[in-house]
Amino acid sequence: MSIQPKLKQFDLTMIVVSLVIGVGIFRTPAVVAEKAGSEWIFYAAWIFGGLVSICGALTFAEIGSRLPAAGGYYKIFSYAYHPAYAFMLNWSQVIINAGSSAGVAIIGAEYITPVLFSNSAQTDIIEKIIAISIILFLFAINFAGIKMGARTQNFLSILKIVMITAFCFAIFGKHAPESSSITNNHNDINFISAFGVALISIFFTYGGYQQTVNFGADVENAKTNIPKAIFSGMGIVICLYLLLNFTYVQVIGFETMKTSPLIASTLAEIIFGPIGATIISIVLFTSVLGFLNTSVMSNPRVYYAMAEDKILPPVFLSVNPKTQVQQFGLTFFIGVMLLSVFLLGDFENIVNYVLFIDSISLASAAAAIFILRKKSNANYDGFKMKGYPIIPFVFMATLLFVTYNTIVADPKSSLYGFIIFLGGLPLYFLMHRMFNKSKTH
Q1: Which residues make Cβ contacts (< 8 Å) with residue 285, sequence separation at least 6?
Q2: Residue 308: is its pLDDT beyond 90?
Q3: Which contiguous run of DSSP H or E holds residue 78?
Q4: How far apart are CA 5 and CA 2, in angstroms?
C-alpha cells in the first residue's frame, strides 16, 4: 500500500515551524552573543543566517516541487547522485535523529518536572518517566493516523507562535540598564572568526526546514503546496527569531546575555518575576512537544524511501491503508527513542557529531538542484526559483563556510561525524546485498 496525500498547505506550514523551532532559540542566543563578542556582529550574524535560510528555503522549495516523494530528503541524494552516497549521509541520521529526539524529550522533562513535582527528591527518575510518557503519548497520537498527528501539530505550533510573540511584547515594558549593553571595541574582535563561529549555532537553530521534503507523498497538490508551506513557515520563523533576539538584547542586555546560558529563563524572570521560571518551563515544554511530534511524523518517511531502494527490509514499506501510518517504521523509530532515553550520553555531544554531517548533507542536497534541472523534462510546471543559480550557490558556499568553522571549533566531534559517515559505505553494500538477494535467484 502506497502513501496517499492527506496534508494540506496549512498543515505543512505548521510542520515547518515546529521542525525549525525546537529548544535552540531558547538557548543558542547566549552562545552566539559570547562567540560574536559584539552586539553588531550578533545582529549581523542572525540577519545573515535568516537571509541565507531564505536562499535555502527557495532551493528546497524547488527541490520539493520537482521530487515530491515520501522520504524526499533521502530521495534527493538517491536520484541525483548514487544510493550509496544517499545512504552514507542518511543512515547515521535516522538513528541519531531518534537519539537526539530522545535528548530533546529529556530536556522537556527537565523543564516541566519542577513545575509538576517541585518538592520531589527523585528528580532523575521522574524526568525519565516523563520523557518516556511524552514519547509514548506522541506514539499513540501518530499511530492513530497522519491527520491526527497533523491536527496535534497545528495546535502545538500555533500555541508556540502565540507564546513566543507574547514574550516579544516584553520589549515594551522592561529594558536593560545602559551599563549592561556596553559592547566590546570593534578593533578587539576578529570579525571573520567571530562571525563564522557564531554562525554554527545560528544555522543549527535555523535548521530543520529541509526535512519538509520528507512529506512529499503526504501533501495534497505537492508541487504547489510544498513551496508555499516552506516560504510561509520560514517567514514566520525568521520574524519570530529576530524579534526574540532583539527582545533578549533590549531587556537583558548584551553583556549579561553572554553569561546567561538559560537565557529564556532569565528573560522570563525579568518580565514575570518569581513565576517566570514556571512560565518559561511551560513554553519550552510546549516547544519540545511540537518539535518531537514533527520528528515522529518525519523520520519514518526516510525509512520508507530507503526500503523502496531495497536497503532496508520491505516491512518498512508497510502503510495502513485507512490511517496512512507506517506502523512498523513508526514503532521502530519510537523504540530507538525509548532505548536512547536510557543509553543517551551528553545531548550536546550528539549535536556536535551530527552538525558536521548536517552541513555537508545540506550542501549536497542544495547542489542537487543543478542536477534536477538537467534531468527534469521540459514541460515541468512546478515552482522555479528566481535568481538561479546565484541563490543555491550562496546557500552552498555559506554551508561550506560553516562546515569549516565547525571543524576548527570542534575537530574531535567533526572527526567522529566523518567516521560515522564513512562507516555507511560498507553498511550500504551489506544491506543492499541482503535485501536484493531474493531478486537475483
Answers
A1: 108, 111, 112
A2: no
A3: helix 72-80
A4: 10
Scanning the structure block, which residue is given the C-alpha cell 513535582? 117
Residue 70 bridge partners (DSSP): 215
CA distance 278 to 19: 24
Q: What is the CATH number of domain 9-435?
A: 1.20.1740.10
Beta bridge partners, 219, equal: 7
SS (H, E, C) 120-165: CCCHHHHHHHHHHHHHHHHHHHHHCCHHHHHHHHHHHHHHHHHHHH
CA–CA separation, 89 and 86 (whole Å)? 5
Domain spans, the chain: 9-435
The cell numbers describing 29, all together, are 542566543
Dihedral over alpha carbons 323, 329, 332, 333 (to 10 degrees): -90
C-alpha cell at 59: 532551493
pLDDT tens figures, 53-90: 889 888 988 888 888 887 788 888 888 888 888 888 87
Determine the residue type at 99. Answer: G
Residue 138 CB neighbours (<10 A)? 24
Q: Which are the contacts of 426, defined by CB distance < 8 A and separation ≥ 6? A: none
Which pLDDT score is estimated for 15? 87
Helix, strand or coil for residue 329? helix
